[in-house]
User: What shape does this take?
Amino acid sequence: MHGVPVSGGIAIGRAHLLSRAGLEVAHYTVPKSQVADEIARFDAALATVRRDLEALRAQIPSSAPQEFGGFLDLHLMILNDTTLSKAPRDIIAAEQCNAEWALKVQADALLAQFDEIEDGYLRERRADVIQVAERVMKTLLGQPGYAPAPAADGEESLILVAHDLSPADVIQFKQHQFASFITDLGGTTSHTAIVARSLNIPSVVALHHARQLIVENDLLIVDGTQGVVIVDPDPQALAEYKLRQHQWDIERRKLRRLRDTRAITLDRVAVELQANIELPEDVGQVQENGAEGIGLFRTEFLFLNRDDLPGEDEQFEAYRKAVHGMNGLPVTIRTYDLGADKQIGGKDAATAASALGLRAIRLSLNEPEMFLIQLRAILRASHYGKTRILIPMLMSVPEINQTLAHIACAKQELEDRSVPYDRKIEVGGMIEIPAAALAVSTFIRKLDFLSIGTNDLIQYTLAIDRADDTVSHLYDPLHPAVLRLIAQIIKTANTAGRPIAVCGEMAGDPQLTRLLLGFGLRRFSMHPARLLEVKQQILKSSLRDIEPRTKKILRIEDPVKLRALLAQLNA
Ligand code: PEP
Ligand code: MG
Assistant: This one.
């Protein structure tokens, strides 16, 4: 199968399926001795949901419309019906499977029956069954989440196969030991893919039918560099890929020797390589790869997979941990980029706002309370090491002014509380909307530094939803319009003497390192796993050689010629 490569390397292992969205769960076998416990776990989840529904029922004010109570009664009835409360217990016992799987199997069977019902009213109750089953599922999973996969025994690695995963799902896999994952949907710079890359395991997205065609336990080869998945390979293919896997490991080991080497071109121009992180725990990986700071901390991941919002103290602790972990190296904390595919309050992709909607700084300015909490938390962390604030998705000068006013307000609140913070903290903006790119000189006047978010800049310039697999083949970082915009932003910032970085996925692609150097970029921020490869590329490059060639590439319109020139540049 061919898909879109997301994270390089080769994985060989057994397929581990996640069922389709809504009731996405893992299947695993429960030892005979634990079947009774598994049934008890299922019963406990039912009891919790029953208690929750009854409590909700009791809280309904008498003034509320009657349907409110009626709807809860209906849900309680569905919950207590033996088809949902008893049948899964029998499945657990008969199949020795986990409770989530048993519930899913039973719910699917029930829903199939609903499809055959002719009566419109009854057929509509299908949605209620789904809601009740999901409620039990979420309780079983510890809301919301996945059952931990069974530990891979011995040599066998597990490869996760899913129809789709949200960024919130993938971040949870940081705790799991999957060797790889593959999905039917998604694009190369979807947030799901970005988090996948941060797990540093081979992965492929946009495979379209993988979830349907692959069966639990199938032997799979995932080539995350080529975007190829081989199901049930023959012995020759297996031997060939084992060899390639071995070579890949040797390459990685060689790269590790570059950890403490400075990133300097052959003509002795220094380049700064920083890292992107999603959670403070990622700092370890940043250090391992010798990054010179954090260029992008995507703080919104602190807000996902939970019902409540992280408070000021909790956020402060997370930011301080990253700042402290970096030992005085700069940490660029981006204010939350929530909305679009990263929803709070357990909402899933189906209810997601559009990428053109209330997202990032727009959401922050719409929710000043929540924004101020985060700003105070970041400012407090700035007392413990070099910290910078980065604002996502800025589009206009009034937005910048409002943002700066909020920062001033957060500072004043800390002054009033006599809490220390860095009074000279720098504030930067992400350039990821074409309007901001075209008007970059006004941004330069207002902000201390800039960072180009190429993932969004490409999405908005080409009108390609970065999370939509049906258009992922059109997503093109090498589109002349994109290249000219990026080159123009860098040139304008350099002329004004304003620090400029690229922190989108382009910064971590070694095939684009020389091109970006040629545009005048001297600061890259990327996922730590990409850093050493990019450094290796810089060490082999000479600006004198690159610059005239990049100028030529910028003048080319024909995509085939452009790619040929890029290949020559990288040769
Ligand atoms: C980008 O858009 O390039 C970027 C770095 O931000 P994110 O990927 O989190 O949207
Ligand atoms: Mg972005």
Remarks:
- The CA atoms of residues 163 and 212 lie 8 Å apart.
- The chain has a mean pLDDT of 89.
